[in-house]
Amino acid sequence: MENKKLAEDSFPTKLTFRQKAFMNKLLDVYREMKEPLHYSIVAERLGLSSSTAYDMLRLLEKKGIVTSQYATPKTNTGPGRSNILFSPAAKGVELLTILAGESQQQEEWAAVKARIIAGLEQGKASGYKDVFDELFARIPDADTSLVRCAEIITVLLLNLKQTRFEFEKQSSVGSLLSSPASKLRMSILAGLILGLSIADIEAQGLLDEYAKIKEKYEVSLQELSKENLLKLHKFTREAWNSLKRSPA
Fold it and tell me: Which of 68, 90, 187, 236 is the most buried (most CB within 10 A)?
């Protein structure tokens, strides 16, 4: 979250997919040659026309992601026309590092989400015991706040399912999930689910354990960016719909 804010503060103008791809390739060539690059070299290595490479380099320079300098060709023995050479700016390298990290996190989230939803679908026949046990055990080892929230909210929903709660849109939980995403609503949601299944939790002797889990959820929820909050809300609705489709 802090890295994303740094990127937004330092680079108010976002890069397009094409600009990111160009910049990544430029970095590769620069690291290989270890010196500022003439646009003709960039064009050759990236398979572009010289004019396209030059225009893109100038555009990225305006964004503060590339720097340029003039240098006399080394082959010249006397006064001559200077060449313009380009290098990735420090901020450009920093931005791509941040974006690469965010891309990896998105891929990891997609994998986690797919794993949990698949587990819910497969667990219908066995009453969800295996998927519940796996998620319950994974909570302390969650890599990110988003993953921790997703695993905890799924555990809470699975426990609620065991109480024979009716997973309908008109229910209290369904109404909350139908409302726009907010940290307050997602906090109330977890508390409501916990409250509705409290008798079952007490019967299992896990009240203290669930109190700790709920606390972890609240801390992780507050750490979520707006984007990740929306991801959590969407995921919770998918988990809810999966459980809704299964027999009581």
Answer: 236
The reply to whether CATH 1.10.10.10 applies to domain 15-88 is yes
Model pTM score: 0.62
3-class secondary-structure state, position 88: strand
Domain ranges of the chain: 15-88, 103-245
Distance CA 190, CA 51 (A): 57
Tens of pLDDT, residues 75-101: 554 444 668 899 888 877 777 666 655
146-201 residue pLDDT tens = 999 999 999 999 999 888 888 887 788 888 899 999 999 999 999 999 999 888 88
DSSP, residue by residue, 13-48:
SPPPHHHHHHHHHHHHHHHHH-S-EEHHHHHHHHT-
SS3 183: helix
Check if the beta carbon of residue 114 is closer than 8 Å to that of residue 125: no
Q: How many helices (H) and strands (E) does the chain have?
A: 12, 3
* 8 Å CB contact between 4 and 144: no
